[in-house]
Amino acid sequence: MGICWFSKQSVQNEQVSVRHSDIVEEGEAENKSIQAVALYPLHSDNSVILNFEAGDRLIIEDDNDPDWYLARHINDQKRGFVPKSYLVQDVVGNAEYVYSSGFFLFFR
């Protein structure tokens, strides 16, 4: 996984486009959801970018773009685009994640 760095100004000027090739019924989407944990905080004034803190849990709704996910917060349902390098997919399941000294630790 690489590290993505960009300035606040570049995010504001960037046009983000993700094609939605697969439309899924809402109930079906919940069953097929992929959960992820944010590695870094992301704060943007761009309304299409999802704002979150490191350690926040997100649901990936669309991963067709090579660089961006369409995701939503697991609790408050806010949606937006997230650079793929900012998330790690949750392959452990319902583990508890702790962010410490630049590393994520998880406990079952």
TrEMBL record:
Keywords: SH3 domain. The keyword Cell membrane does not apply. Pfam families: SH3_1 (PF00018). It comes from the Eukaryota. SUPFAM superfamilies: SH3-domain. The keyword Ion transport does not apply. Residues 31-92 form the SH3 domain. This is SH3 domain-containing protein. It comes from Nephila pilipes.
